[in-house]
Amino acid sequence: MASMIVYHLKDIQYKAERAITPFHIFDLDREALAAYREPHTKDHFCLLFVKKGRLNLQVEDRRYTVNAPHICVIFPGQLSAKELLSDDFEGKLILFDEVLFCSDILKNELSIYNYNISVKLNHIELPEAETSEIEMLLEQVEKSYQDLTSIKKEQARFYIKIILLKLVEFVHTKWGNSQLSNENAKIYGKFLELLERHYKTERTVSWYAEKLQLSPKKLNEITRKIAGLTSIETIHARIMNEIKQLLLLSNYSHKEIAFELGFNSPAALNKFVRAKLDETPTNLQQQLAQMYKT
């Protein structure tokens, strides 16, 4: 029995300097996509943008008819195959690693805001306006990739993250507002909307339950069923994600972060981080800088 094909990002490079690049972008046609037609897995993410034509895509046990201008994101480890490409098929392919997309955010923030995200992003049909925006961002990525200086490398990473976050936002809204017929899922979506608006000032389950006209116990049952987290874990995870974002991306002092997020003092911020991660904000900041350094 033949072994499963596994593609590794480190093996996909045109030049020696590409080895330090956590992403690659390619033009795709029938010939270039030939290697991906048989069932395979990857150790990296794959974003496929169909510019022209169509193909049939299988991801795990799900089948999609992908027409222009659809987008597909395939996650590491997902079994996939591309079939029945049209003769006029054209597209773009971006391959990137977990560091670029921030695996920590995938496991935390996105598990909260986008339940079952690895399925939702497998096939996306964007409206015309959003498609044009994604195409412009892809052009910027490719332009930077052709002359990959240290600055342009960071610019390209930034553009890819914007693309991914826009896709995440789109599928979250789409599934939350039009495809989720389950009443509990709708309540969970409303809870997340409230949380996004008020997490800096409101941190009790009872406050959100009252706004949703539920008992705290019922809200907790729903969040646990939908996302595998309790209501308070969901609230705390949103706060923790913002702490990480500010530690990594802002010039705020720990005191400023504490007050920005509604803590009474830096000591309260320190206590919160220690309780969740068993480390100080300073140690966390150092780890984040190391994790996402270029």
Largest sheet: 4 strands, antiparallel
Q: Helicity, in percent?
A: 40-55%
Can you list the strand order of the major beta sheet? 2-9-4-7
Mean pLDDT: 82
CATH class wording of the largest domain: Mainly Beta
Beta strand count? 9
Write down the secondary-structure element order: EEEEEEEEEHHHHHHHHHHHHH
Beta-strand fraction estimate = 15-25%
* CATH architecture assignment of the largest domain: Sandwich
Total discrete domains: 2
Helical stretch tally: 13
How far apart the termini lie comes to 41 Å
Any low-confidence stretches, pLDDT <50, length ≥5?
Answer: 15-19
Protein name: AraC family transcriptional activator of pobA
GO molecular function, one term: DNA-binding transcription factor activity
Keywords: DNA-binding, Transcription, Transcription regulation
InterPro entries: AraC-bd (IPR003313), Homeodomain-like_sf (IPR009057), HTH-like (IPR037923), HTH_AraC (IPR018060)
What would your notes on this structure say?
The protein is α+β, with helices and mostly antiparallel strands. It folds into two domains: 5-179, Jelly Rolls (Sandwich); 183-289, Orthogonal Bundle (Arc Repressor Mutant, subunit A), CATH 1.10.10.60. The chain is 51% helix and 16% strand. It is globular. It starts with a strand and ends with a helix. GO terms for molecular function: DNA-binding transcription factor activity; sequence-specific DNA binding. Keywords: DNA-binding, Transcription, Transcription regulation. Pfam families: AraC_binding, HTH_18. Residues 189-287 form the HTH araC/xylS-type domain.
